[in-house]
Inverse folding.
């Protein structure tokens, strides 16, 4: 068997195993949801006679715990579902009001029976496949040992009373295996559908979500700002300032030499000049790292082709940005591309890089793809720096870099209008 | 006078050595980091060590720590610390073991060779040399309940110049007042800071320390 074929078989097998695991977890939450349904109905009935009112809060908290458990499962199978709850008040009447006003509570209660019935049934049907591979496959080994009532197949639908039947049952095992390998992995999302629909925050809540997110990104922006200021401070102190201090010291030395040995003074002044020129060069570099003048003069198109021309790895740019975006967005895109190019040149062993920048309505989309060996880890300062800059603008960064390549970095920046 | 220099920037290191040799000092070693510095001090037993604050590996306060360690290992070693910018906490760290034979100057002061050499000689001779910039910063951060608040503006000026390490004569020249007036101001400073008559030099140092400690605790 060739190497790629072996990898493919392994992938299929692994997908089936992972799907089985999450379906089993789904069966768990489903059965728990059924139990919770009974609990909620009980509390509702008791509330009619009064005493149940005190039990509403603990019951709701239990439902929330279960729903959060399911949310974690949803997140693991690729549906990120944040917990939407507001704090639950303590007084029974307040709890009733919260039950009426907080849509999250009502959505939880709707989810319970759906997931409890539909989710449990679908999960247990799906789980029949792996179980039956073993049960039906080994049927000829044990069917004579059990009482005739239990010697049946297909979950009891077909009674087996002969060896021919037993061998036929055993022959069905590969069918179950095919079902398990190729159908069961496709059932994970459908089985979780009630949760995917009902457990995320209600659309109305979105706004407060967004406020929270903006608060977080604003903090990140201030953070990125501070990091940037520290970088500039460092660059000024350790670079240009040092050179200028050198100028001051050497001018002192030159004046001192002037009296005693004018020839030496000239040699020192020569170095003073070099030091002053170095200081100027460093200042230019720092200034350019704050806002590259080329960006100001030639826009993103000119700035990025200048970057591409400087890139050690051949780089092609396609930039279609009209009208221009705000300066801060352009400079974020510029530095992200610069960082990505440096990163690719340093780590990827790529031989070609492709940069596309497009403006679609009020979003600026930047895609950087290289044909390198992939496996880019988001631990190096480069990629982290890109994400931080983009987050600060309330944008998104998607990095895909499978081992073997290619590496693609996708950025989306809101750029107003 | 034997001198050891520790400065990681090659240009500055050479410039310093050039200036000091030009003034007739014996520059025994010019090194680029805290460890070679400690070794050079052990080997050459200099009278004065000139140390840069930011040195490898972290480029933060290695120089201060190296200077403090060298002073502990060799009591009586005069240390002049050079810094690219003023950091008052560095000055406080440096003066924690006493203000004698200590200097803390901005790097560019080296360019004014005469003043720099005077400061170096003052430190080697048991005095203090604190950069006017440090002193100005300390004044900017005074607290209201500080004993230094009792000083008149003129007295504060005198104390600031005194903190730089200047003697009465030099203070008089700098502030364009008579020697007599300087003397009067200093006496008043001592009494306002509750420094009882004792050895004159010690009281000067104590006044400067009081002044620096005030900010250290704020």
């Amino acid at each position: 068997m060739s190497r790629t074929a072996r990898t493919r078989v392994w992938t299929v097998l692994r997908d089936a195993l992972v799907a089985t695991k999450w379906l089993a977890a789904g069966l768990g939450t489903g059965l728990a949801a059924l139990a919770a349904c009974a609990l909620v109905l009980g509390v509702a009935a008791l509330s009619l006679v009064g005493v149940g009112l005190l039990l509403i809060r603990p019951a709701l908290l239990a439902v929330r715990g279960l729903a959060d458990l399911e949310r974690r499962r949803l997140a693991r199978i690729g549906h990120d579902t944040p917990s939407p709850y507001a704090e639950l008040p303590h007084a029974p009447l307040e709890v009733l009001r919260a039950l009426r006003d907080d849509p999250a509570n009502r959505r939880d209660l709707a989810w319970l029976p759906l997931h409890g019935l539909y989710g449990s049934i679908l999960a247990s049907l799906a789980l029949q496949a792996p179980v039956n591979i073993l049960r039906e496959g080994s049927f000829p080994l044990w069917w004579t040992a059990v009482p005739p009532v239990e010697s049946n197949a297909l979950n009891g639908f077909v009674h087996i009373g002969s060896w021919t039947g037993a061998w036929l049952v055993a022959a069905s095992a590969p069918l179950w295996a095919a079902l398990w390998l190729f159908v069961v992995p496709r059932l994970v999302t459908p089985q979780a559908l009630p949760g995917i629909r009902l457990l995320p925050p209600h659309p109305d809540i979105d706004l407060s979500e967004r406020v929270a997110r903006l608060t977080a990104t604003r903090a990140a922006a201030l953070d990125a700002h501070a990091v940037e200021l520290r970088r500039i401070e460092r660059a000024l102190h350790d670079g240009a300032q040092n050179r200028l201090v050198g100028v001051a010291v050497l001018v002192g030395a030159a004046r001192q030499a002037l009296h005693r040995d004018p020839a030496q003074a000239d040699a020192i002044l020569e170095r003073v000049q070099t030091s002053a020129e170095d200081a100027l060069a460093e200042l230019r570099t720092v200034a350019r790292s704050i806002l590259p003048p080329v960006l100001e003069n030639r826009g993103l198109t000119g700035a990025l082709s200048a970057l591409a021309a400087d890139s050690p790895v051949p780089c092609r740019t396609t930039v279609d940005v009209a009208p221009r975006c705000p300066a801060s967005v352009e400079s974020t895109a510029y530095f992200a591309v610069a960082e990505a190019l440096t990163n690719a040149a340093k780590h990827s062993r790529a031989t070609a890089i492709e940069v596309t920048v497009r403006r679609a309505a009020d979003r600026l989309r930047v895609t950087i793809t290289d044909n390198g060996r992939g496996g880019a880890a988001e631990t190096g300062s480069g990629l982290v720096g890109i994400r931080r800059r983009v987050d600060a603008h309330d944008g998104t960064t998607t990095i895909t870099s499978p081992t073997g390549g290619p590496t693609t970095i996708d950025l989306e920046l809101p750029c107003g209008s | 006078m034997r001198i050891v220099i520790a400065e990681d920037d090659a240009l500055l290191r050479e410039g310093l050595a050039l200036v000091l040799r030009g003034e007739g000092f014996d520059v025994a070693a010019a090194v680029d980091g805290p460890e070679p510095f400690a070794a050079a001090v052990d080997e050459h037993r200099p009278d004065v060590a000139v140390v840069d604050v930011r040195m490898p590996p972290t480029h933060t306060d290695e120089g201060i720590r190296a200077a403090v360690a060298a002073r502990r290992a060799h009591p009586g070693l005069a240390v002049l610390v050079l810094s690219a910018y003023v950091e008052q906490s560095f000055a406080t760290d440096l003066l924690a073991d006493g203000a004698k034979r200590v200097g803390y100057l901005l790097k560019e002061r080296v360019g004014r060779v005469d003043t720099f050499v005077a400061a170096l000689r003052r430190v080697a001779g048991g005095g203090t040399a604190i950069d006017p910039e440090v002193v100005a910063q300390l004044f900017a951060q005074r607290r209201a309940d500080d004993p230094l608040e009792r000083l008149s503006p003129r007295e504060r000026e005198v104390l600031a110049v005194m903190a730089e390490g200047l003697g009465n004569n030099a203070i008089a020249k700098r502030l364009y007042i008579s020697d007599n007036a300087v003397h009067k101001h200093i006496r008043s400073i001592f009494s306002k800071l509750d420094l009882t008559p004792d050895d004159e030099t010690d009281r000067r140092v104590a006044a400067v320390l009081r002044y620096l400690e005030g900010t250290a605790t704020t």
